Amino acid sequence: MAEAPPATRQPLILGEKSLGQVSRDILSLVEGGATPLWWTAFLISFTVLMIGAAAITYQIATGVGTWGLNKTVGWAFDITNFVFWIGIGHAGTLISAVLYLLRQRWRTSVNRSAEAMTLFAVLCAGLFPVIHLGRPWFAYWMAPYPNTRGSLWINFRSPLVWDFFAISTYLTISFLFWYFGMIPDLATLATRAKSRLRRRLAGFLSFGWSGSTSTWLRYETVYLLLAGLATPLVVSVHTIVSWDFATALIPGWHSTIFPPYFVTGAIFSGFAMVLTLLLIARKTMGLEDYITVRHVDAMCKILIATGGIVGFSYLIEVFTALYSGDPYEQFAVVNRAFGPYAWAYWLVIACNVVAPQLLWFKKLRHNMLVVWIISIFINVGMWFERFVIIVTSLHRDFVPSSWAMYRPTIIEIATLAGTFGLFFTCFLLFARFVPVIAISEVKGVLGPGHRHEEAGS
Amino acid sequence: MRTTDISIDRHELGGLAPLLLKLAGASLVAGVAGIALMATVGGRGLDRILQSWLVGFTFFLNLSLGALFFVLLHHLTRAGWSVVVRRLAEGMAALFPLLALLAVPIVLWLPRLYRWAEPGVVVHDPILAGKAGWLDPTFFTIRLGVYLLIWSVLGLYLFSRSVRQDATGDPRLTVTMEKRSAPGMVLFALAVNFCAFDLLMSLDPHWFSTIFGVYLFAGSVVVFFAVLPHLTHWLQHHEELLHTVTVEHFHDMGKMLFAFVVFWAYIAFSQYMLIWYANLPEETEWFLRRQSGQWVWFSLFLAIGHFVIPFILLLPRSSKRKIHRLLLVSAWMVLLHWVDIYWIVMPELSPGRVPLDPLDLFVMLTMAGAYGTAWVLLLRRRSLVPARDPRLAESLAFENA
Amino acid sequence: MSTTVMDRRVREEGAVWGLLAEFTDAAELIEAARKVRDAGYTRWDSFAPFAVHGLDTAMGIHKTVLPRLVLLGGAAGCLSGILLQWWTNAVDYPFLISGKPLFGWPAAVPIAFELTILFAAFAALFGMLGLNGLPRLHHPLFTSERFRRVTTDRFFIAIEADDPRFDSGETRRFLTQLGAAVVEEVRD
Prior knowledge:
heterotrimer, A: about 450 residues, mainly alpha, Formate dehydrogenase/DMSO reductase fold, 17 helices, about 70% helix, globular, disordered C terminus, B: about 400 residues, 18 helices, about 75% helix, disordered N terminus
């Protein structure tokens, strides 16, 4: 893209689309049926999902002992995966809500798929605290309900209960936000449908949307209100996740910067995952005119900014530990960087702090392959970041006699793989059956000159 | 859509400059006279004056930091709406050399404010002895100098390029400023954080909190967005300057104020809750000091005044669009930011007793006078609007959807 | 129109619900909506495939009560969050743990906050559905083959027969004058 004069704003959608063409382009996969590529991807994902399901079944049937946890390291792979997936689940709401409030209109091309991603990632995340319970069939004990065991209530002062409330609220609102944004497009799907079943089904799911102005007006008001509510919500969710650690006394966990640091880390990893997926989607689904270089460029800049804040937090953590004069804090920092898990720590630094610096260069930001590879690096780095935080703080605690090492078992690795299978299976089904881009919103950001359709077309 | 031809509009301080200079000068003279009076007749010692001085200095430092953040963010995000008020902020962000001058008394009498600067204290305190490498008077002074140098370079650079664009109208200057702002923001963030650690957190040299720098940063943006609508409105009111600024721009300033009030509360609560929950004595001491004696009421006033009240008042859309309501809330927030700084500094130096004193007011008058004079002198012969910014037209036509 | 003709029509094809005018452009729709409003029609609406800005003012629609509903929902959520935690942990089942007070406000904030957001979002969503009369499985306009393009690329104005100023011939002429590409009758 040439250097444009600052006064002009670039068009958001390329290719001079007409309104009807937007509908046709975006609905092509939904209306056109599955391609062989789709089937291949789906079958692979589904197989991996089944492997994960088998691992979880075996673990529930046998016990948590099938994992590599021990008395010293009681949280490891499971909670790492939990925080990782929750983090991925933050970009969707961020793109939908925060960028909406900030009037970043380029979001319209990516918000639908990012919201769907949020939903699937939160599903994956929610799995881990449950299977971690040991007796997951009693998971409902986490909910406050009147029971016959006398006066017995859950402990609301426990951060794990806060988590339960935060995650379930987040899942609910993410779903509503996603579904709500889809209502007008479902109506589009219904009116264009050839088969009677699909018309009925999509019409039913669109609630009988007619596109009348008063409906649109209230719709937009609600969208704005939901965006205003989802923004503090998305911040609160990862804040509460960070409190799972930071309320404890463990050196390396108890740090006041954890809330904003975790939230930014979540956005960082979420955007990386959005890029990973969208770069594949735009290529395979022919959406280059909708998800343009400009969109990728903007997301890369968000990666630089959030990656910068994450790196800044690492620095402050190290500095404050050394400054604090607290020998335990100091030991935790030294042990992370030079202890038995040092390789993981430096991997984190390389992936999260060093790799994103390449995105300062416009040439690299506009090279889709480079961006895609960097996004993979960040995904890996952010997974290991949580692993380092959790495992290195636990495995060498206050009492050297109880120090231990942690090594994941094959069951844990299969479970992690299984969540990737779940995630991609859901995402592929989504891409097959619902419009991956918000059609009505894209129509709103087409330039005024592009809206005419030749009569009769 | 409105179109305003700003070429027929007056947008220089012009006749207002002498009036403003007179006001600022009066404030400066009254402040200095007041301090002298309190020192001699009132019998306030150097220690007490320095305490007030640190509060006042931090207040105006934060104002300039908020302004610099706003200008950097404007360039980084290529914002459209904020062009019309950017020059006012650029003026404030260019005042760091003055702030360096105002920091001299603090550096000169370090041990009177900071325990760690007294060698006699440090030898008997193993924790402080361990920190002696970092908390060293010379090193501290150098660091403070570096922070102020970074901000001065950034502020003056952005100011000079923006002013140059007024003369040349070269749109490439906008592109350069945008490019320089990204590394500028990195330096800005690091300097703000470590300055907060040095200048304020080290008042209690045992205590540490990783979020402390972010807390101070949140406050600095609050005070900037509280001052900006007042400045804009005052200039608009007198001689119809800046009528390029419409209710839409005030609405956005209100939104930013609201957002950062909430952000401040989020950071403040995170810090408090984590320390409260973990209940480690070496961390809770800082809050206990603020929950003992008269400071209890002061802390409650801060929590309610800096969050609950502005949150409720700024929530409805109308309170951001009715300018007089917005001005009322933002005036309150200017006061509460001072309260915030006072709450950070004073309990360390006066445990158990809130030492409110006319001296605090006189120091603020002195600083405001000096700050205001410098701002007017800087902008006296300049346009108050970046008149040839390529995005000015977008800003003029801006409407909240 | 005489009553006998009217009766026969009702028997044959259902009552006339209103007139539907089709436009090809958002700007035309806004212009037409303004004129329909100025002509004094009250029971009418316009339809578009995306949210057209300026249409609400052109139609003279006022702001909705939704923000107030959301505020109420949020307040209810916050209050129930606090009451729930206080009553269960400090009254019904007082249980001292990790040296925390039975009801310490900092520990109560997270859940009170989550419930605030949850209830407020429910208020927004169900409030919108209720006010819009959704879900709605049938609408007379859905019988029009032409109207199906409203979700793709066409813009419409419909004036209902219930409108006091409605007159089949007069209104049709009026809509044609506004630049409608097609005007058709919609029956219930």
